[in-house]
């Protein structure tokens, strides 16, 4: 791969790698800080870093994350 140097045995593997690793645009932007993500779900998760919200609770120790 010209972009990262990773080697592939077959051309289709290189093509797939380039399409999924290097060509996915970071189209989804955090409205708070402007950081961009490839997936909208990643923005939703990232937004929690701004709010301090910790919606997940461990059932064993009650720690939140």
From TrEMBL:
Protein transport in keyword set: no
Q: Fetch the Gene3D superfamilies from UniProt.
A: Classic Zinc Finger (3.30.160.60)
Q: Output one GO MF annotation.
A: zinc ion binding
What are the subcellular locations of this protein?
Nucleus
| Residues annotated as domain C2H2-type | 1-27, 28-55
Annotated Gene Ontology cellular component terms? nucleus
SMART domains under this entry?
A: ZnF_C2H2 (SM00355)
Give the keywords, sorted. Metal-binding, Nucleus, Repeat, Zinc, Zinc-finger
Main location per UniProt?
Answer: nucleus
Known PANTHER family for this protein?
ZINC FINGER PROTEIN, ZINC FINGER PROTEIN 526
Protein's name according to its UniProt entry: ZN574 protein
Q: Please name the source species.
A: Heliornis fulica
Q: Which gene encodes it?
A: Znf574
